[in-house]
Design brief:
about 350 residues; alpha+beta; SH3 type barrels; Alpha-Beta Plaits; 3 domains; five-stranded antiparallel β-sheet; 10 strands
Length: about 350
């Protein structure tokens, strides 16, 4: 009988399908290539048995409708569709690994995996169990609308995360700074949020929708080097050229800044009280900024003592008082020529 001819292939397909699941789990997540090879072998064997048994996985079984044979028939088709999904997902993971995609691409991978499982689930319900797929899709659409209205904030985070991933605004390990002043290194991205490790060793969890609305500055691109500017005020009695030469020697003596591109000294302004100088230099990464700035300040102090340079008092500390009877004002800066602060 034709039904008897089908019984043995169905039994073998079930055996292969269950064996494939066991071997798939034994392989573990650390061997994706070996997993895929095993998966392909089992799936090929199951497909070959379907072919020689003239069994169509995309049509309900009209031979076995009850009893053990019917259960074997349905389970064989379910296992075949499941192994098909796993094989496709395995190829996608291998493709991502071979192309060295960034770790944050897992959002896109999760979307692809979800779409594959959804398609396989609908195929099983329609082709194996004979359920009306059109009705299921319509019902699912209504349910999706209800869930979308109830979870619009969460969905906003999800789609914002997808947009940020596709736009490659940042990667795991990048230093970023937001328009509200929050800065840190990206440690994790997921469906809902992005985690930043701040300089204070705190984890800031930012919803993706909030992150997408803010202006974001990447401090790690085009490379990890980061420019720092440091303003210093010197008493106006010194010659600007001499001040510039001393500050250049400070930058050359530093061991914690990047020398290529070379650091620069800019004379920003001069008045009766002070010469304002800006030191412009780069560090290897944002993490080195504090140590480098501390070193530069210490070197400025040493060079000022060695060369006789005097720092000017801060402009905010100057006191103005009437100098004449006509109401004109003058600045009291007795200490401006002898002491001050950076």
């Amino acid at each position: 009988m034709l039904g008897d001819d089908h019984f043995l292939p169905l039994a073998l397909i079930n055996i292969l399908g269950i064996a494939g699941i066991v071997v798939w789990h034994v392989q573990g997540c650390n061997r994706p290539t070996g997993r895929l090879i095993v998966q392909i072998l089992f799936f090929t064997g199951m497909s070959f048995l379907l072919y020689i048994g003239d069994i169509a996985p995309h049509r309900p079984d009209d031979i076995y409708t009850e009893g053990l044979a019917a259960a074997l028939s349905k389970s064989a088709r379910v296992l075949w569709w499941t192994h098909l999904a796993w094989t496709i997902i395995g190829f996608i993971h291998i493709y991502v690994r071979l192309n060295r995609k960034p770790r944050e691409a897992h959002l896109i991978l999760d979307m692809a995996v979800a779409a594959i499982y959804l398609g396989v689930a609908l195929s099983v319900m329609g082709f194996v169990f004979g359920m009306p797929i059109a009705t299921l899709v319509t019902t699912s659409g209504v349910v999706a609308v209800i869930l979308g209205l109830a979870l619009q904030n969460t969905l906003g985070d999800v789609f914002s995360g997808i947009a940020l991933t596709l736009g490659k605004a940042y990667a795991i390990g990048d230093w970023v700074q937001l328009s509200d002043g929050t800065a840190g290194r990206v440690t994790e991205t997921n469906w809902r949020s992005t985690n930043l490790l701040t300089g204070a060793n705190n984890i800031v969890v930012l919803p993706n929708s909030m992150l997408a609305r803010q202006g974001l500055t990447s401090l790690s691109r085009p490379d990890e080097t980061h420019q720092i500017t440091l303003s210093v005020r010197f008493a106006a009695l010194h010659r600007p050229r001499a001040v510039e030469d001393v500050m250049r020697s400070v930058l050359q003596a530093s061991t914690r800044i990047v020398k290529d591109p070379p650091p620069a000294v800019a004379l920003k302004a001069i008045d009766a009280i002070a010469i304002e100088v800006e030191l412009q230099f780069r560090v290897a990464s944002v993490a080195m900024a504090t140590a480098a700035k501390n070193e530069i300040i210490d070197l400025i102090h040493n060079q000022c003592q060695a060369s006789g340079l005097s720092l000017a008092v801060p402009a905010a500390s100057l006191v103005f008082m009437p100098a004449t009877t006509n109401g004109q004002y003058s600045a009291l800066s007795v200490a401006a020529r002898s002491s001050g602060a950076v």
